[in-house]
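User: I'm writing a short report section on ligand binding and want a predicted complex to refer to. Could you take this sequence and phosphoric acid mono(formamide)ester and write out the structure as tokens? A short remark afterwards would be nice.
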Amino acid sequence: MRTMDARLERLAETDTAHRVAALNRNDKPFHAVLAQQFDRTTIEQLCRLADMIRALGGARQGTQFLRTLLSHRRAMLYFIQPSTRTFLSFAAACQIVGMPYNSVRERSTSSEVKGEAEEDTIRVLSQYFDLIIMRHPAEGFAEHVALIQNEMPRTIPVINGGSGKDQHPTQALLDIYTLFRCFSEPRLEARAETTGAEAPHQRNVAARYTENPFAGKTIAFVGDLMRGRTVRSLTYLLCRYPGVKLLFVSPPELQIGGDILEYVSGNNIAFEISDDLVSRIGECDAVYMTRLQDEHDVDGESKSIDYYRFSLTCEMAGSFKPNLAILHPLPRRKELDQRLDALPQAKYWAQVRNGMWMRAALIASIFSVDVAIRDHYHAYYSF
Ligand code: CP
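Assistant: Sure. The structure tokens for the complex follow:
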């Protein structure tokens, strides 16, 4: 543990560019650990690839093709922290690209109980598997594991499925993919109307990623922003899009970290801080709700916070913009009224499904089978 602490201290002192360089190969993510690894080109390539996998996965021939791609590789899902969506969507993503997987979800079943260092457990994984997908309660641990892998004779990629309060980059990728889809649909429909083209379909989806749909949009993050890793990671990605405005709405005790605000201002992205959701909801084009992360309480300190004021309710629906996109990384508690599920603005179930396609796209990109997918898609599915 002392070795890990020393490494984490060193990581904190290393600038982001060097950290990203250690995680990338050939200018693209080899390990996927930090949201800062994903520039605009990479994000949009992954979104296009997710669209293609989605289209191919909708038909038997395409599904069978996808399953051949990585049937010679194996994945380890090392999830030492509870998860429903991230675990299951990665499991489904592995199945989509034909990759067999195994999992460790309980430390009590590992030889760590006999005194083995967790680092050694991870070193062992690289002897049996070709990819580690991990969720861990410690901030920085996924990055630490990726650097360990870089030193191994057999280096395998590491994907961060959530690291403490710090980062959840694959959630951020599926979130931005969802926002792209939400923001481009009305635009594509309008274009189809003016040009007489057919309803948005394969031929038009390419347009989804040729423009910046975030310019002029206001995106609100609501809730426990101090301890929510999904908000941190998505903010890094949104800072790639000039013209977006970010609104951080939370109890003052749970506001977003100063490091993130520094990053936002450093990238010339407009932002505001508020503790009044009711008065601000009407100006939002997207609202990203989050639950209270009270598992991080040290001494029940969040019990005294009135979190109801940071809930989205049916009573607010009259103020919603018609094309508002309501997102939530889930799980939800009472901060997102279940009666909102029936509204067209509720995008969180689509967001869950988008995660499966996006994670399949990320795995395909890491193993460089993205070109084969593009070729197959264009040969069989674009017309
Ligand atoms: N959004 C998310 O990370 O959900 P899980 O914790 O269920 O994986």
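A remark for your report: Residues 83-86, 162, 171, 329-331 surround phosphoric acid mono(formamide)ester (CB under 6 Å). Residues 169-195 form the longest helix (27 residues).
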